[in-house]
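Issue: ligand-bound run for cytidine-5'-triphosphate - logging full I/O for the record.

Environment: standard queue, default settings, no custom constraints.

Inputs:
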Amino acid sequence: MPFVVLGVTAGIAAYKAVDLCRRLVDAGVHVAPVVTERATRFVGTATFDALASEPVQSSLWDEVSPIPHTRLGQSADLVVVAPATADLLARFAGGHADDLLTATLLATRATVVVCPAMHTEMWEHPAVQANLGTLRSRGVVVIPPEDGRLAGGDQGSGRLAEPAHIAEVVLELLAHRAAVADRPVVSDLAGRRVVVSAGGTREPIDPVRYLTNRSSGKQGHALALAASDRGATVDLVTTSRTPVDPRIRVHPVETAADLEAAMLALADGADVVVMAAAVADFRPASVASSKLRKTDGIPDLVLEPTPDILAALGRRRTEGQVLVGFAAETEDVVRRAAEKLARKGVDLIVANDVTAPDVGFDHDTNAVTILGADGATTEVALTGKVAVAHAVFDRVVRLLATPE
Ligand code: CTP
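Outputs:
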């Protein structure tokens, strides 16, 4: 039976955690609720006591176990915090351990999911977003809040995601964890150099405007982290500015031209090259040197194609180098991806249907099909982007071990 710690912090949405608790228990999960002392002002512990698999704990000094945070942290298959207040996110990002929930979060190696809920102004505050960036860079899964009615009758972004949705994501993550639980921690990329590109390029129109796409860079960053965890030396060429594990060498870029120059230079002599970036296919043929003004009328934006970086990497790669591309599709996913695999001369292509719920752009989760030039196909059901990254490197490692 999977063991989930359900952290509840002091927000008005704390009552919805009761519904989440019930859904998880009904799905066969052992739920240990950790309700912060302040959260107990919003929802009574008796409610959780009646529904959860074990009594509520709030304090490091409860009698249940001499060291409750290590028991909870080590037993957990997953820790989900719903609702997660701005304060909890700050304390977790800062590594605090001054109450049972933050101590448990530090003491666990399990998957951690946070479900923020707060007023729109707080949600949009750079401090909150920076803390989320830090947590995401460490592999924490964030289920973003929704738009809707907030406490006090306000309307806006910040309402806790629906408990049914949170339960669904948690159950998917648990299912995936069970599937990979036996996977030993291996350094199967030790001694290898891996280059990963990530994020959507920005193609300037004038000094203040640019064309871009919806890529967040999360999948590329997860790939860099997974490769590093497996022992590789990693170069990450990225348009995203989220914090990156210090073991990874970061090369910040903006445009397709920057990305092309960095990738072609770094790919020389690399063992593995992964193009997860969403490169703009077209860019303005000329960039205005000063801001375009409304009073000058609607500009005629003339576009030109950008170079296909992956195809160029495919043409110039050296013996034994493994080349991986991505294909974010909206229809006919596998056929289109297979066509790109052949056209660009890559070993593996990772295809996803970006119209499916929780898949692709800006989500922390993804579901992909990995197609190989060798004809092998791997399906990866909805899971965290780090788990997807490991599934990709599982295939890469096989190719490195058995060069054609
Ligand atoms: N890619 C690239 N350079 C480009 C466009 C795409 O290197 N100018 C790479 C992407 O990083 C990805 C793969 O090619 O790994 C597939 O990208 P995608 O945009 O799906 O393919 P396109 O060839 O642009 O085809 P289309 O957009 O028409 O589907």
